[in-house]
Amino acid sequence: MERKDLNSLYDEGHFKRGYSQKADLAIAEIDNLLNPNSFSSSDFEKEWERFLEVIIGEFPDISPYNLSVLEIGLASKSLRRELLIICRFMTELLPESTECQFFLGHAYLHLDDFGSAASCYRRAYEMAMQQIKKRKLEKGSGMHIDAGGYLHYLTVAECNAGHYPEALVCAAKTLRMINDHHPTSVYLAEHYKMMHMMFLQMNMEGLAEQYRLKAIEESKKRSREVQS
């Protein structure tokens, strides 16, 4: 995003109105500094301190939508701790959002904090299942598909933490969720790959090979469907 004044950001839909303009200005400045063509780590560090001071001072009068524009830029620069801070703020601002919990889990996962990542993914899954029950959503709904994704990443986190009993249970629940609600999900091939790695770590070569072959076949199937 090229440098624009705040009114332009509002008018063009980059930012939402109605929250602290002081916070929005700080967010816009960080976003400008994350421009890949002009990024300076020293400039960023100085502005990041000012940004945090503003966000803390204006909290909670901050737009989660406006904050979210920083996620891609921070991730692209591998600024993982800064990304975690943004995700934590967003989760506080939107405590009922399964997506915020999910992205917070990713932020912890990228920092190899597998226990915290697992807690976030589990929370996202539980919140999704509560919404499914409350709204009486039918089989195959988008929320069912999302819940399967949250379970998949919960399995990844538990596996990376070496919690294999928990990972096995999550893996089984994920397969059931995907097959029941979205058998063509892109998560299926990825889930097979993850299970292949999990069984390798558990020294179960036979099962590892089975899921390696399943992952290959599922990837080929998805490729054929895309081409047809």
TrEMBL record:
Keywords assigned by UniProt, alphabetized: TPR repeat
Signal peptide positions on this chain: none
TPR repeat ranges per the UniProt record: 98-131
SUPFAM superfamilies xrefs: TPR-like (SSF48452)
UniProt keyword annotation of Ligase present: no
Highest taxon listed in the record's lineage: Bacteria
InterPro entries: TPR-like_helical_dom_sf, TPR_rpt
Protein name: MalT-like TPR region domain-containing protein
Species of provenance: Candidatus Kerfeldbacteria bacterium CG_4_10_14_0_8_um_filter_42_10
